[in-house]
Amino acid sequence: MTLGLDHLTLAVGDLERACTTFLELGFALKPGRVHDNGIRNAHLKFVDGAGIELLAVPEINDGLTAHYAAFLDSGDGPAFMSLHARDTRQLHACLTEGGYGFRQAGDITQLSLPEFDCLFLVRDNRNVSDRPEHFAHANGARALSAVWIATENGDDLVRLLVQLGGTVQFRQVQAPEPVRAQVVSLDSGRVVILPASHQRLPGRPVIGASFSVTDLVKVRQVLASARIRTRDEHDTSERVLLEPEFAHGLWLEFRPGT
């Protein structure tokens, strides 16, 4: 079964402002739509369907919009992480074999245990309406390469991801500061699992996203032209790091890679 990072759901109070932010950061955006429950969105996408969904809730119409509205009471930020599993039948078999309860709601597989509330799985976020210009990011971003999760249930998350085919290593990472973490490698992308103390706000385990880019020069040029200050302007490390205040509550990291 092919398992990989799919998209983060970034809940925002002002969708137009968030779109402007990510355009200034050098990302192309695919316009979204107004859903039946009033949710509005836009998409930062890559060829494999991964990326970030910018999502706004104009009014409360159902349980999901109520959830997002309550979430946004504490400000913009990442609400969910999703993975793609290309074979839903095999995914369900793996979950059943591992003793994990789940439910299928349309195209979404959700785990029953509350420690996995920030996670859901989809088969494929690619769409026939995707166009090359949706992936033509001015900052040179090629892929969503890693997601940072800060949780008190790290061991449980590792066991789940390994059950689904991931491989785990303990290693030193920068997320954003140097820390020893469990890193689960998937077929596409990595999940970096950190202590819950790294959460910016209690109860928000998704804290950061790392992107592979063609080169850092292009990233720095785009950000400089938008007068966006990076955290590591005078650092010699091989990354560019943006603090959450510049990305609606989400750490953004750019590293050279394919």
What can you tell me about this protein's structure?
- It is a single chain.
- Helix content is 19%, strand content 37%.
- It has 2 domains: 3-122, Roll (2,3-Dihydroxybiphenyl 1,2-Dioxygenase, domain 1); 138-256, Roll (2,3-Dihydroxybiphenyl 1,2-Dioxygenase, domain 1).
- The protein has 5 helices and 15 strands.
- It has helices at residues 15-24, 63-72, 88-97, 154-163, 216-225, and strands at residues 3-11, 30-34, 40-45, 51-56, 77-85, 102-105, 108-111, 119-122, 141-150, 167-174, 178-185, 190-194, 206-213, 240-242, 251-256.
- The chain has 258 residues and is an alpha+beta fold.
- The protein is globular and about 50 Å long.
- The longest helix has 10 residues, at 15-24.
Provide a brief overview of the structure.
This protein has 258 residues and is an alpha+beta fold. It contains five helices and 15 strands. Helix content is 19%, strand content 37%.
Specify the CATH architecture of the largest domain.
Answer: Roll
Q: Name the CATH class of the largest domain.
A: Alpha Beta
Sheet with the most strands: spatial strand order: 2-3-4-1-5-8-7-6
Low-pLDDT stretches are none
Shape: globular
**Biggest β-sheet, characterized?**
8 strands, mixed
Q: What is the succession of H and E elements? A: EHEEEHEHEEEEHEEEEHEE
CATH topology name of the largest domain: 2,3-Dihydroxybiphenyl 1,2-Dioxygenase, domain 1
Tally the helices: what do you get?
A: 5
How helical, in percent, are the residues?
Answer: 10-25%
Beta-strand percentage?
35-45%
| Rg over alpha carbons | 17 Å
Number of domains: 2
SS-derived structural category: alpha+beta
Distance between the termini: 22 Å
Give the averaged pLDDT, no decimals. 95
CATH superfamily of the largest domain: 2,3-Dihydroxybiphenyl 1,2-Dioxygenase, domain 1
